[in-house]
């Protein structure tokens, strides 16, 4: 029997804490934004953004993030993961400042894209460094804590955002990133060791351009279709173009000897199922959070802080269950743990089909808790399955694949479910706004936020419009929840069909310096 040789870094747990701080600022931002959507849409005190512009404010970040993860992963392998992590934090902090003081929705969208460039450098670096400083025997626990931090940020973001919006202007939800970035930069410099891949790959610029162009065109068509209908060339044309560009991307990657996305990895059913489950659960979750932001603050009349506090049970569930998921996987295997987690998420999404404008608050809190438990038991086993299938020095590839699919899943969830929400809402409210003047009719039919704005100027007749808008939105929300639940069911099928019943051993590590040696590189 081989003796146990601990190959972990002596400061690995302190390093994990620093990496979690770095990760928090990236994940926190999107969830903070969710609770600020109503404020940004406010024409009087915000930017007057339309629903499609709000979707782009979310997706400009996620699409750029997803498209550049592989490039930053390769740059980290080549130039040093610590250096890339520091650079990403600086870019993210600067873009946060620009976002906070944006004067138009278009400026905000472009600033968010710049934030995506920085965030794409941070995310894979954190997971790559974890895989290099932890022994394989401890890696599952460390990744469980890392995934728990993702879930925690998803949950505390709305609370932080709500508190800021109660006391400051909407830009404060971006300004809060700056002190976290500064603290992260100091701690990374002091504690995190440098590491590199001894045989780094080349950067696939063609692949990066094709992937971003294809995703942006595809998502643009979906969002435009939700706003104006899919019968227009401006909607289905970009969708077709996006699909063709993405098909060209796959063909190019198959022939490339340095692909930004090694699509051959997806021939491995275990790898594909793990990555697919992550993408599907975030498709459902991010789309759901988009419509919940408007449901809670408009239909239910909660303040931004109250709406944020409604996600506290989600945070509690993440804190309690995510760190324990690794032990659950060892006992029951990744297939069962991941399938049960997805089933819990799907159950909550199904229950949203029956939520109304008067559903008791305790039901909404319970749904948030159950969804948190479910997601806490999807991310860790899926991420660990991805990471353990690759050699340690190729950790950047595994983390980039997992996080790219997660971001793409979230972006498509916001785009597809947001467009479904807009289309159904527009159809439902059409009869109630026919008598309004043209400009007011278009604004009220565009989104529930627009309807509330029109109602505020309509005097006594505004109450009837608000009632119609709330009813139309709840119906549209049911359709979006149903779409989310279907995606959750697909995820369960993928996991049951292809994820392994038992944990597989970690992929062997090829010849490369130990983490202690890597700490002295560069």
Shape: globular
Query: Span from first to last CA?
Result: 36 Å
Main sheet makeup:
none
Query: What's the SSE pattern?
Result: HHHHHHHHHHHHHHHHHHHHH
The tally of domains stands at 2
- Total DSSP helices: 21
Strand content: under 5%
Which runs of at least 5 residues are low in confidence (pLDDT < 50)?
Answer: 509-522
The CATH architecture of the largest domain comes to: Up-down Bundle
Secondary-structure content class: mainly alpha
Task: Please tally the β strands and state the result.
Answer: 0
CATH topology of the largest domain: Growth Hormone, Chain: A
Gyration radius, rounded: 22 Å
Specify the CATH class of the largest domain: Mainly Alpha
Q: Mean pLDDT, nearest integer?
A: 82
Give the CATH H-level superfamily of the largest domain.
MFS general substrate transporter like domains
Helix content: over 70%
Protein name: MFS transporter
Organism: Luedemannella helvata
Domain Major facilitator superfamily (MFS) profile: 15-503
Subcellular location: Cell membrane
Characterise this structure.
This protein is mostly helical. It folds into 2 domains: 12-203 and 260-508, MFS general substrate transporter like domains (Growth Hormone, Chain: A), CATH 1.20.1250.20; 204-259. Helix content is 77%, strand content 0%. The protein has helices at residues 12-41, 51-79, 81-100, 105-133, 136-167, 172-175, 177-191, 205-228, 233-255, 269-299, 304-309, 312-321, 325-332, 334-351, 361-376, 379-388, 395-433, 438-446, 448-456, 462-498, 515-518. The two termini are 36 Å apart.
